[in-house]
Write the structure tokens for this entry.
Amino acid sequence: MEYFLSGRVSYNISPSDFEFKELLSTRDSNNMVMNYLASQIPSLFGGSADLSSSAKTYLKGLGDFSSNDYLGRNIWFGVREHAMGSILNGLALSGFRSYGSTFFAFSDYLKPAMRLSAFMNLPVTYIFTHDSINIGMDGPTHQPIEQLAALRSMPNMDVYRPCDLNEVVGTWECVLDNKKPSTIVLSRANNINLKETDYTKVKKGAYTVLKERGKLDAVIIASGYEVGICVKIAKELKDYNIRVVSMPSMDVFERQDPLYKKEVLPDVKIFFVEAGSSYGLDKYVDYVIALDRFGASGKTDDVLDYMDFSLEKIKDKITKLL
């Protein structure tokens, strides 16, 4: 009991603890990281609002919590997103590092409970998967657009959208080293695990993942799945010297020293590429390539092309603007 009431969290983790795979969704990366951490942190406790198999937040081998088994570490909340958030707040008040998960579009059902976490400063972790229109066939009801902007606007809620396994590890380090609420936004689609990403720099909120080859012409900022796409684009645009900056957490970046911000984002043409609302992104950049309309149902590649968000269409927009 003393362990829980102290709020102490002790753990040891690095990307080298996991097998490297070139392609892996961040929800799968997160599943590996959570299970690794759960074996070290007895207070890590939570579950999913009826989407455990899709959100992939189940703690393997640690049992299901029920009236018959109080030792189980997995909670089956059912289709009760708001109730889940309220229970997570109660668990946090009792000393647990509680977490809950569902699809990102369904975060709207959780907002009142998340707001309580934020102004009570409770270390609840909200995990949302299916973070983009690239989930395809699920259609616009399940394809988040405005959710990133909405949660980033919430005071005292750190929002993370990691781009690969390295950044998922770094995200959890940030989450566990702070006693405040956090949101982790993850992909269903396979992300490119980039050798250039650095888990130790997630704590900066944003950092350079691809350096320019010569005199800098432009910077592209991206988060999550789009980081790998923008790295490909920057490498293909050989007539320009482009830097790619990963921004896993806008909230954390905002707290950095102004000199560091200037170092990462100097006075050149800057683009922000993100598969969500453009609201709030223009404070960093000259050009925003985002989505300000609801998605569509269809095969992933067809939806991305229809929404003008395929790799080729993003590259064409950047080329014209350059």
